Amino acid sequence: MAEERRGSWFGFGFCGFGQALGSGHRRQVHSPEPLRTPGSGADVRRVSASWSYTAVVTRGGQVQLSGAAGGAAGGCRDAWTSEALLVVLRAGPGAGPGLELQAWAPHSALRGEPLWTRTLAPEAEGEDAAGGELQAGALPLLPCARAYVSPRPPFYRPLAPELRARRLELGAEHALLLDEAGQVFSWGQGRHGQLGHGTLEAEPEPRLLEALQGLPMAEVAAGGWHSVCVSETGDIYIWGWNESGQLALPTRSLAEDGKTVAKEASGLNEGGSEGRRTAGAEDGAPAPFIALQPFPALLDLPRDADAVQASCGSRHTAVVTRTGELYTWGWGKYGQLGHKDTTSLDRPRRVEYFVDKQLQVRAVSCGPWNTYVYAVEKAGS
Q1: Facing residues of 305 across strands?
Q2: What are phi and psi of 379, to 5 degrees?
Q3: Edge-to-edge, what's the strand order for the sheet holding 86-91?
Q4: Intra-chain end-to-end CA distance of the chain, in Å
Q5: Residues 43, 60: contact at Cβ < 8 Å?
Q6: Which residues contact 60 (CB under 8 A, 6 or more apart)?
Q7: What value, to the nearest 5°, has the Cα angle with vertex 135 and ends 310 and 107?
């Protein structure tokens, strides 16, 4: 069997706090640049980004912080960032096989004592994905898959025994869970339609997305107030808030930027999503604007590409295709879409940097205002 080609991480978008993002010399990076890690030559396996700081986890078990929070620690298996907490999964005390979950204040530099700790029972090690980042059981889902970590109290939250989770993602106000059967559950606040149940109501407990029943999913991703999932066959389903075009649907804010907005009317469209209409479409008919999409909608990528992974920022979306291409869309004010500018987009666009450099994208991880990508050289290049 041929040896797996070792790749590199790239970053683009907001780095106003000095996050390890490309060159890092400016407040923002508009095109992908090799990741500047605190440890030269560090072999990064996972990147987790919050708004003001970023954590990278190396294969050697070190967590390195950059941005508004700094510091490093060894003996780490995983890390997950939020503005309120830095959560680290480390080898437990002593020579035993157990793990210890630690929650730190982000500005503690991983020094002193954590805010709280919890010893976890020994669990089988999960395999890494092609990009080297943890997949099944990655934080905030714990390795036991029976609980997860929240940035707000209670920090440790058990899951119902019948929810056999294989991935869990947290948005600003909602959660998505993918179970072993490929079913998707959501809960939390729903005022932006991010739960996908066809209403704007909150759900206190995990609720099955009935619209996706019978369609096994392989990936889920939670943005600030929108949600994405990828089916086992490579289809993309997306729902929630579309303020910046993050659902790849026409949005009023982008039309206004393009000076195309005229008189409006508002209401619910036939599909149940909240929409606005404005005069001025090229064919003379009213052009629909979609503000909210409260149920999953199928999204086709250009070139009929099949998706394998998705990640979401606060208001932008990124998808990796089966052929190793990266598509991004949504809010682009800080260059987080990677298209060499700060344009926002309401349709998917391929990031040409990786095509031009003969690189295959294997993984993407979005922070709120930035994007991190793992890519390898194409065979024969």
Answers
A1: none
A2: -60, 130
A3: 76-81, 86-91, 99-104, 116-120
A4: 19
A5: yes
A6: 42, 43, 74
A7: 90
Greatest CA separation for the chain? 73
pLDDT at 21: 77
Tell me which residue of 16, 66, 69, 19 sits closest to 334, measured CA to CA: 16
The rounded percent of the chain whose pLDDT value lies above 90 is 73
Nearest to 164 by CA among 185, 189, 187: 185
| Least confident interval from 11-15, 65-69, 123-127, 179-183 | 123-127
Residue in the structure block whose two tokens are 């669990």: 123
Q: How far apart are CA 7 and CA 289, in angstroms?
A: 40
* Cβ atoms of residues 216 and 231 within 8 Å: yes
d(Cα 381, Cα 369) in Å, to the nearest integer?
32
Quote the tokens at residue 122: 């020994």
Q: Which two tokens stand for residue 109?
A: 């530099």
Cβ-based burial of 379 (10 A; exposed 0-12, middle 13-18, buried ≥19):
exposed
Sheet architecture: strand order including 71-73 = 44-49, 53-58, 63-67, 71-73
Q: What is residue 174's three-state secondary structure?
A: strand
Strand partners, 169: 176
In this prediction, residue 98 has a pLDDT band, given cuts at 50, 70 and 90, of confident
Residue 173 neighbours by CB distance under 10 Å: 16
DSSP 109: T
Chain-centroid distance, C-alpha 330 = 13
* C-alpha distances in Å from residue 225, one per residue of 24, 191, 222, 241, 338: 28, 9, 7, 6, 21
DSSP annotation of 197 reads: S
**Contact criterion met (CB below 8 Å) for 234 and 240:** no
Residue 193 near residue 293, CB atoms below 8 Å: yes
* pLDDT score at 25: 57
Handedness of CA 296, 300, 306, 310 (dihedral sign): negative
- For residues 178 and 182, give the distance between their C-alpha atoms in angstroms, rounded to a whole number: 6
Residue 257 backbone dihedrals phi, psi, to 5 degrees: -60, -35
Vertex 102: Cα angle to 100 and 106 (nearest 5): 155
**Helix (H), strand (E) at residue 353:** helix 352-356
Q: Is the pLDDT reported for residue 348 higher than 90?
A: yes
**Predicted structure pTM score:** 0.88
SS3 category, 356: helix
